Please model this.
Amino acid sequence: MKSEREIAVVLLSGGLDSATCLAIAKSETFDCFALSFNYGQRSGSELKAAKNIALANGVLEHKIIDLNIGQFGGSALTDRSIKVPERESAGIPPTYVPARNTVFIAYALALAEVKNASAIYIGVNAVDYSGYPDCRPEYIKAFQEVVDLATKMSIEGRKIKLKTPLINLTKAEIIKKGKDLGVNYANTVSCYQADFDGLACGKCDSCRLRQKGFFESGLVDPTRYK
Amino acid sequence: MKSEREIAVVLLSGGLDSATCLAIAKSETFDCFALSFNYGQRSGSELKAAKNIALANGVLEHKIIDLNIGQFGGSALTDRSIKVPERESAGIPPTYVPARNTVFIAYALALAEVKNASAIYIGVNAVDYSGYPDCRPEYIKAFQEVVDLATKMSIEGRKIKLKTPLINLTKAEIIKKGKDLGVNYANTVSCYQADFDGLACGKCDSCRLRQKGFFESGLVDPTRYK
Model:
């Protein structure tokens, strides 16, 4: 337990994982800044979901940053000429966005330093996930080393800890944890190609992982499908 | 020596160091993408300089990315309420921009992966420098670990190398090296508070390091002062 309120930056996509992550950060008694990115992702409803989640959690501030990695191309999430796959396949899927988490964590670090935060929460998960390289524990561990060397704060002896409370949980375990903390999953959007009202396709990788998670958790899936 | 042309992403600020770095990348037979950032820095002339340098070096493309770290505040380079110091002081100066190089390298990594580059050149220097934490060799070494784990390319066995050819050179050595490679230093702007025409103040940390470098190199300083 901490003797006084500390500050955390929480990466908030609007999906199930990051919403749970924000609830966990709050339960660990952090005052939170939520940080979201507009990087040309197909699903505009994600950001709408992120806004609702931030509001429902009473964050200190919700920052939405316009990014330009989408313009580099190379991903089915930002480049409409690449199709979102609707069944499982081997290897890293075309929905991978080059260096996405590296850019996200870099921004979170900048905000954490300016706001004097002592933690950055990231809802990465390496169990029920899409196989992205930048969701693995060894990646986060390496980035912690960068964080420990990158900042003026670190030289002054103040540490920023990268926290990944979901990294070893199954999707069902994440959902159960979130339910215990009062997360309203009807507010979250997981689908890679949801429409603007948040209606999900039910077919993409992310939808399938979510469905499997709700099924295995034994809880009701509040997702609205097209 | 490489058997075929390889591709590099070169971070180009418009200053003396990055201009030299680009010339070195070219001399090491890379085809180069130049990458610059508009992050609310005081000196708009930096980006004008970067454009001229990119043009003079025949890069494949010069990308200028609008960043939002400036809006976080916390630095004399982006926040006009904080004064740029005009004499040397102990510790990390107020011109430090939180997590700047971390954000820059993250973007360079995204571009490198999309363009299938095998190197990222960064003109950081840990000899005649301002004491920024994210210019030190241990920081770059830690980031190389992140790069090796972050990307789809890395999982496929293709490596991206962070190259810092200036890291152990004095400013005078950098200038001599650049002169040998034909860098026109009149095109570069180092001053933290140059005016739009690139006229330098001659007083800030960056101006003083540049003056010392030219003095010690024995070469003529083409900088235009206010």
